[in-house]
Specification:
heterodimer, A: mainly alpha, two-stranded antiparallel ribbon, flat, B: alpha/beta, Rossmann fold, five-stranded antiparallel beta sheet, globular, binds adenosine-5'-triphosphate, binds magnesium ion
């Protein structure tokens, strides 16, 4: 039951996208999001969406994964679509009391939906092709300049790495504790809200105790190996730019140029 | 018909794990037995015993407790948790109450017993595992690892289950603590005449305490029989990464070298008797030695 939770949606693979440097992927993803919001007309948006049809097969991520990542945001998509439909002036297509649906509203709603779908699908591609560890590593190096203004970049990324590493362990532990308490007759499934919250005590207390014990042990083990933060620390696997990154960057520039051209060449919405 | 019976019991952990953790297990454990469960690491022992109190639902097949199909009414599965008590591997992580007393009382309280009954059971269970009166008011988190283990075992004993299952109760304990806990459990078994299943990696412990043995191998029940019969199959056991008690190996080796000793000796006492007899024969000038 608890095992069904997946955290981090990394799909291991060896495609071009998988082999790209996480820093480059991060930058390109951010650029993609920015372009999505500058795309003003159907052509620009169309090119942005078409890009995904090219990128997903290229990274060997099954298309149904898009649907999977969209599922949780369906309510948000519907909500924005409805709002957009109602609050734009233009040719009235349909009117009921004070609710007016205009042609411009419909177009804006469609744009917004396409934009959100592309946003989710595009950013998901980053997490599908980059392992969480390599993602945090990339972020650490990308944000390293922030160190100068006092942001503890290394520490934050170390914390993220450790947290990611321990999520499966803690899930397993929760499972074990739940079984052990059920074996002593703990009733987790029935009763009202208060009773259910109360029934969680025998699970949460051992879980916290063991999480603290683990944290102390890990800290000790790290100190024993002379860990003292990021200063002077080097990486075993250093991030290096390689050919896939070059392809990616060139492709991204061409794509951005297309979108910008489309924005300029076609002044109207459609 | 035994107290626990399984019918083609199989289980696998989710679709991602293609291999079954247990595969088509058919066993019948009689009431009042003291049964050892042995098998290599990952052979499915823990998975199997978690089916006996309904913590795991069979992937396919059935489990019968006292002849009743356990999952006939899934809503009433809790009833079997009290009937079949399970002490997990490394049970000390399950402690959570403020005092040792309250922690041991958790199980009986869930059964809905009266206050007096709970109290008498808690003290009885604490006595069995050797937790003294002075520890009862202490926080379970202040105890040593071995003491925690005892408290956790007492927590299940206090439910006074018809079947008591212990999953490697002595892993990581010192030899004296190990012998003490197992001795007490054996004594408890003698008094209550309940059924005990002991999952263990120690062939010595199994030989010393158990009457019957269930051997798990690669997710399947390899055999179920008397201790003597099982340890007779030493070559097969060795092949699946198990062993026989050290004393049995010695006796087998002696037999191979031509001494008159039974190769399926599995307790030190019986070996001693036979060796003394041999030595006696020696002194009287027999030709064997
Ligand atoms: N929670 C779980 N999720 C997935 N697979 C599991 C889980 N628990 C056990 N398994 C798998 O099921 C198989 C049987 O495991 P089980 O714990 O029953 O073995 P065991 O005989 O108790 O081993 P040990 O002697 O180490 O305790 C193993 O292959 C194991 O990898
Ligand atoms: Mg086990």
């Amino acid at each position: 039951m608890l095992k069904d939770i997946t955290i981090g949606q990394y799909l291991p693979g060896a495609s071009v996208a998988h082999r790209m440097d996480p820093r480059v992927k991060l930058v390109l993803t951010i650029a993609y999001v920015a372009l999505l919001f500058t795309a003003r007309n159907a052509w620009a948006l169309g090119i942005s969406a078409a890009m995904l049809f090219f990128l997903y097969p290229l990274s060997r991520v099954p298309g149904r994964m898009i649907l999977k990542s969209l599922k949780p945001v369906v309510p948000i998509i519907l909500f924005t679509a409805i709002l957009n439909m109602m609050f734009h002036d233009g040719l009235v297509l349909f009117q009921l009391w004070i609710i007016k649906i205009t042609d411009k509203g419909v177009i804006m709603a469609v744009f917004m939906v396409v934009r959100i779908i592309c946003l989710i699908a595009g950013t998901s591609l980053l997490t599908y092709t980059t392992s969480p560890i390599s993602l945090t590593n990339g972020m650490e190096q990308l944000f390293a300049p922030l160190n100068k203004i006092g942001v503890p970049v290394h520490e934050i990324s170390m914390m993220m790495t450790i947290a990611l590493r321990f999520i499966p362990t803690l899930i397993e532990e929760t499972d074990k504790i739940m079984s052990a308490q059920k074996a002593r007759g703990a009733d987790l499934e029935s009763g009202g809200l208060i009773q259910r919250i109360h029934a969680l005590t025998p699970i949460l207390i051992p879980l916290f105790v063991s999480a603290f014990t683990r944290a102390i042990e890990l800290a000790l083990a790290m100190e024993c190996r002379c860990y003292n933060g990021g200063k002077g620390r080097t990486h075993l696997h250093r991030l290096r730019l390689s050919m896939p990154d070059l392809y990616g960057a060139v492709f991204a520039i061409l794509f951005a140029a297309c979108v910008i051209c489309a924005n300029i060449v076609f002044p109207g919405l459609l | 018909m035994g107290i626990i019976r399984t019918e083609n019991l199989s289980h696998s952990y989710g679709a991602a794990f293609k291999q079954s953790a247990i595969d088509c297990v058919n066993i019948d454990i009689e009431k009042g037995g003291f049964v050892g469960v042995i098998g290599h690491t990952g052979s499915g022992k823990s998975t199997l015993v978690q089916h006996f109190n309904g913590l795991l639902k069979p992937g396919s097949g059935k489990v019968f407790i006292n002849g009743e199909d356990m999952w006939a009414k899934p809503k009433e599965i809790r009833k079997y948790r009290f009937q079949v008590g399970l002490v997990f591997q490394y049970p000390e992580y399950q402690l959570f109450e403020e005092t040792v007393y309250k922690d041991i009382a958790f199980g009986p309280k869930n059964m809905g017993l009266s206050k007096e009954e709970i109290e008498s059971r808690v003290y009885a269970a604490a006595k069995i595992v050797g937790i003294g009166e002075k520890h009862m008011k202490a926080s379970p988190f202040e105890l040593s690892g071995g003491q925690k283990r005892r408290v956790a075992i007492a927590g299940v004993l206090a439910m006074d289950p018809e079947v008591l299952i212990l999953d490697e109760p002595t892993a990581g304990l010192d030899p004296r603590g190990r012998d003490m806990i197992l001795d007490e459990i054996a004594k408890y078994h003698e008094e209550k005449k309940n059924t005990v299943l002991l999952v263990s990696h120690s062939m010595e412990d199994v030989a010393k305490y158990c009457k019957k043995v269930l051997v798990m191998n690669k997710a399947q029940a390899f055999m179920y029989g008397d201790v003597k019969e099982v340890f007779k199959k030493a070559p097969e056991l060795l092949k699946m990464g198990l062993s026989v008690p050290q004393i049995t190996s010695i006796c087998m080796e002696l037999k191979k070298r031509g001494y008159d000793i039974s190769p399926d000796t599995y307790t030190v006492d019986s070996a001693k008797e036979q060796l003394l007899r041999l030595l006696g024969a020696c002194k009287s000038g027999d030709t064997i030695c």
